[in-house]
Amino acid sequence: MLSFARNCNSDCVFFPRALMRLLVSVASATDASAALAGGADIIDAKDPHAGALGAVRVEVLRAIHSLVAGRRPVTAALGDAADEAAIERAAHAFTAAGADLVKVGFAGAPRERIGRLVSAAARGAKTGGRGNAGVIAVAYADGDRAASFELVEWAALGAEGVLLDTADKSGPGLRGLVAPRALAAWVARAHQAGLLVALAGQLTADDLAFVRDAGADIAGVRGAACDGGRTGRVGADRVRLLRALCEPTRDHRAAPSATRPPDPRRRSRS
């Protein structure tokens, strides 16, 4: 598993396992500045006008990466993969521009091709990031439910982690789509496979305890961090509140989840 070490100073490389990290999706360097000021753990480049996994332009990613300047890990959405050569090129380009991890979905892709698409994206990320970048494979809770569970096996073919999100941002959020027990089982299954686990999907401040209780390593937000909704601008005060809600409760401090994946410093992918 990646340690988020690339271009990141020693203060932000490793996180305590009992602490859920807050990922804030940003559309610009201005958004990134506000997310940093609010204490976001991970800065994620995404165009909210282009769908659930809308990719920003490469030059926008470079500006975000320059603004972050190694203070936090940077991730980036690439959209849904359909062609192996295309997703390999995109993963290469975005990791070369500064992304530590790229998020790739598979909406509409035949199940028998998803493993190959994961592997192609992983190759591109590895070459673009000079061996220090990787892929997060994305499933949609409002899509094919069986496929979302199979994604863990596909992700093991080369991804560093998995994300369960929602594709339709006008429909129900993650909390309305997946029961707590089923979500915790999905997270545990991914952890047992050694994968980093992120959860997103129209999460609000009230949803963060639900995500933390499921055992997620990362909670991803966009709309909840913005003034004016998902297509608005990130507000530092909103991020600050969300970040505080990611802190573990007394029970979580005393008994971190046994399903957490191993320390990333002890695992590497060839």
Index terms:
10 helices, disordered N terminus, 270 residues, eight-stranded parallel beta barrel, alpha/beta, single chain, two-stranded antiparallel sheet, TIM Barrel, disordered C terminus
Topology:
Elements: E1 21-26, H1 29-38, E2 42-45, H2 58-68, E3 74-80, H3 84-96, E4 101-105, H4 111-128, E5 134-140, H5 145-155, E6 161-165, H6 174-177, H7 180-192, E7 196-199, H8 208-213, E8 218-221, E9 226-227, E10 233-234, H9 236-245, H10 250-254
Parallel strand pairs: 1-2, 1-8, 2-3, 3-4, 4-5, 5-6, 6-7, 7-8
Antiparallel strand pairs: 9-10
Any idea of the CATH class? Alpha Beta
Q: What is the fold-level CATH name, i.e. the topology?
A: TIM Barrel
- Counted by DSSP, the helix tally is 10
Spatial extent as radius of gyration: 16 Å
Q: How far apart lie the N and C ends?
A: 11 Å
Order of helices and strands: EHEHEHEHEHEHHEHEEEHH
Strand elements, count: 10
Give the count of structural domains: 1
- The percent of residues in helical segments reads 25-40%
Arithmetic mean pLDDT? 86
Which CATH architecture? Answer: Alpha-Beta Barrel
What's the shape?
Answer: globular
Please state the oligomeric state of the protein chains shown. Answer: single chain
Beta content: 15-25%
Walk me through this protein's architecture.
This protein has 270 residues and is of the alpha/beta class. The chain has one domain (21-245): TIM Barrel (Alpha-Beta Barrel), CATH 3.20.20. Helices cover 37% and strands 17% of the residues. It is built from 10 helices and 10 strands. The protein has helices at 29-38, 58-68, 84-96, 111-128, 145-155, 174-177, 180-192, 208-213, 236-245, 250-254; strands spanning 21-26, 42-45, 74-80, 101-105, 134-140, 161-165, 196-199, 218-221, 226-227, 233-234. The strands form 2 sheets. It has an 8-stranded parallel barrel with strand order 1-2-3-4-5-6-7-8, surrounded by 7 helices. Strands 9-10 form a two-stranded antiparallel sheet. Strand 2 (42-45), helix 2 (58-68) and strand 3 form a beta-alpha-beta unit. Helix 1 packs parallel to helix 2 (58-68) and helix 1 (29-38) packs across helix 9. Residues 1-16 and 252-270 have low confidence and may be disordered.
